[in-house]
Amino acid sequence: MKLTKLALAAALACGTYAGNVFADQAGAIEQVGCFDSACDCGEPACGCEIVESDCGCSDGSCDGCCDSGCDSGCMSGCGLLDDCSLMGDCCLGDPWQLFGSVGQYDVGGWVSLGYHNNALPIFNDRPDELNLHQAWLYAERAIDTSGGFDIGGRIDYLYGIDAQNTQAFGTDPRGWDNDWDNGEFGHAIPQAYVEAGYGDLSVKLGHFYTIIGWEVVPATGNFFYSHAYTFNYSEPFTHTGALATYNMSDDVTVYGGYTLGWDSGFDDNGDNYLGGISLGLTDKLNLIYATTIGRFGEDRFNGVETGYMHSIVADYAVTDSLQYIIQSDVLSTEDGAGNDFRETFGINQYLIKTINDCWAVGGRFEWYNNDGIFTGNGQEADIFALTLGVNYRPTANVIVRPEIRFDWDDDQIAGLEDGDDQTTFGIDSIFTF
C-alpha cells in the first residue's frame, strides 16, 4: 500500500531532523568522526592534531589517557593513538597539489571516471561505458573579512559528460556555453562570480551554484556516485544574479538575493527570489531552509514557468562517526496559462558511518512523488530508490565510490529497464589535485 503525502508529512514532522546543506560545493567530502573512541575522551586521532604526552598506558589500561592524551607509541587498551586510524593503519598523508596557491588564488581540480550498468537520471544516463564525468579546474580567491572589507571570486571549468547538465541550459539554445559540445561530451563554466564582503556580510555577483538541496554538482561534494531524483528533476543547478549572506551569529546565517531564473547564463530566463536561513539548533543538529520563488524559466519548459520551490535539510550527528541527514523538497509550478506544470514532493534520508579516514559506508533512501515529470499533468506517480555505497580513500588524493542502487515504481512510468524495478551497480574514482 502506498504512503500518502499526509502520512509521510506526519512521519517527517515526528522524526529526527538535521542538516548541512551549504557545505563547500567543490570541497572534499566531509566525514564525521575524528576522535579516539577507545577511551571515549575526545582525544584526537584519525589524522587530527596529536597531543604530545606519555600517559603510560602500555599496561592495557586507559588511566591517564583522558587527561593528557597518549604519544604515538601508546598501544594495547588505548589503541594506537598516532596519526593513523584506530581501525588499522590509515595514514593518508598530505594531499598532492598540481597548482596549490598561485598568488592570492587557490587553483586546483579533479578528474572523475565512472561506470554503471544501467541508465539512471541525467548525470548517470550513459551506461555500460567507462565515462569521463568531470575533468574540473577552478581558481578561487576566498574573501577574508576579519580585517574589514575584502573582495574575491571564483571561476570553474568543466569538461566531460556531466558538462551538458551543468551548462546554462535553461535558455537553450541561448546561453553562453550551450553550444560548447563535443558529441555526448561538452564544456561548461558552471561558476564565474565575484564576491565582496565586510564584517559579517558578503555578496556574490555573477554565475554560481544554487543553495537549494544537499547534493551538489561537483563529484567531490557527494558521498554517492549517483544522484537522487529530487536533485535531478526538482532543483536548480545554477543561478545568475546576486546573493547576499549575513552571519547574524555563530548559529544563525541568512541568505537572500535575486537571480535570472533557473540554470541561466548571463541572459534573461525569468526573475526570482533566492534565499534561506541556516540554524545551528544544537552542537549536533543543524537545520537549513532554502527557497526560490518567481519565474523559473522562459524557454526550458515550453514557455513561462512560475512557481515556488523549497528544500528543508537537517543534519544530525548521531555520534562522532555517524551522520544522519533528512531532506524534504516541494516544487509547485504553472505555465503561462495558469495550468499546473510540475508538482513534486520528495523525502530523502541519508545515513553515513565513518569507519576511519580511509573507509566510510552509507545508505540513501528516497521517496519521490511527481506530477508532470514522468507523467502527464494531473497524473501522480511514486518512485522509490535505495542506494548502498562505500567510500574508500587509498590516498589523500583518491576516492573510490562503489554503490548498488535499487529503483522501483509501481506505476511503471519512470522508464526503468525492467518495467517497474531496476538494480544498478556503479563505481567511480575521483582524483583530486
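[next item in queue]
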Amino acid sequence: MSARYLLLAGVALGVSISAGCGTSAAPAQKSQSSGAPATVSIVAVESHKLNTNLSLPAQTMAYESVAIFPKVTGFIEKMPVDRGSHVKSGQLIVSLSAPELLAQRSQAEANLQTAQSHLAAAQAKLISDEGTYQHLATAAKTPGVVAGNDLQVAEQSSAADRAQVEAAQHGVLAAKDALHSIAQLESYLEIRAPFDGVVTERNLHPGALVGPSSGQSGAQPILRIEDIGRLRLVVPVPELYASGVREGQMVAFTVPAYPGQIFHAPIARVSHDINQNTRTMAVELDVRNKQITPGTFANVQWPVQREYPTLFVPAAAITTNLQRTFVIRVRDGKTEWVDVKSGATAGGKTEVFGDLKDGDQVAVPASDELAPGTPVVAHLAKSS
C-alpha cells in the first residue's frame, strides 16, 4: 500500500511541475508578441465642397392669423359667421349693442349745442362792443366830444370780447371732438374682417357681454380668423447649417397628411437671428398650396451648402473620450491624436474641422486604446 501511494504521489508531482512550466511560458510569448507594431486600417482625408440635404422638422402656420377682440364693452347682438366660414376683408362678422353709448352721444350733442350758443353770444357781444368802440373813436376825433377814459374802456371791452370768442371757438372744437369720439366708439360696435380668410375659432355667442382685450372680460377672443390660402412653413435651422441660406431657393418637404407627395416652396423670409435657447435660426418658406392645413408638421429636406471646401472622414474615424473628440492620424509609422470638431454628414462621411489637411491618413475605426506615438503597420481600408 505504501509503494502504491508513493507512485501516485510521484505522478501527481510530475503533473504539477508540467503545469507550472506551461504557465511560466505564456507571459514570455505575450511579451514577445507585444513588441510587434499593431496593424491598422487607414483612409485618406478628403476635401470638397459640402452639398447635401438635411432632414429637419418644421411646422406650417397661417400667413395671417388674428384673434378678434372688441374695442368697446357691449353685448353681442349678431354673429353671422361660425367656425369654417369664409369671410372677405371688410365683411361684418360681429354686431354689438351698447345702450350707454347712446346716452353718451346725446350728452355730447347737447354739449356741442351749448358750446355753439356760447360762441354765438360771444360773437354778438363782440360785434356790438366793436361798433360802440368804432363810434366813440370817430367822435373822439372832435376835441371835447368824448372823454378819453370812455374810449379806453370801449377798446378794452372789445379786446375782452375777442378773447371770449376765441375761448368759445375752442369750446366748440372740443365739443365736436368729443362727439366724434363717441361716433368712433359707436363704429366699434360693428366688427369687420381685417382680411380674406376663414373663421377657425368661435368662442362666444349672441348675448355674451364682451369688452376690450385688456380687461378681464376680454381674456377670450370672440373669433379667430386665419388666411389659409397662403402658409408660412417655419423651419428652425440649426446654427451649424444657418450659413448660406438664400432667399428664393426652392426647398422640398413632405407632410403626414399626404404620404408619398413631395411639395416645394421657396425660402421667403430669414430671421438672421440665432435663438439663444435652441441655437437655431427661424427660416420661413412661402407655401401657396391650399391642400395643407395650418398647424401641420412637415419634414423638410433642407439644403446644406458651403461655398468653400472642407475636410471629410468616415464617421468611424472619429472617436471621443471624456476629454476630447479626435481622429487618429498615422504619420511616419506612428499614431497622432488630432482634436477635431464634427460638422455635417454627406455621402456617408462626416465633415471635420481641425489640424488636418487633404490627403492625411487616419485610422478607421478609431479607438482611444490606440495611444499617441504607437508604432503601427498601416494598410488601406477596403471601400464599403
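[queue empty]
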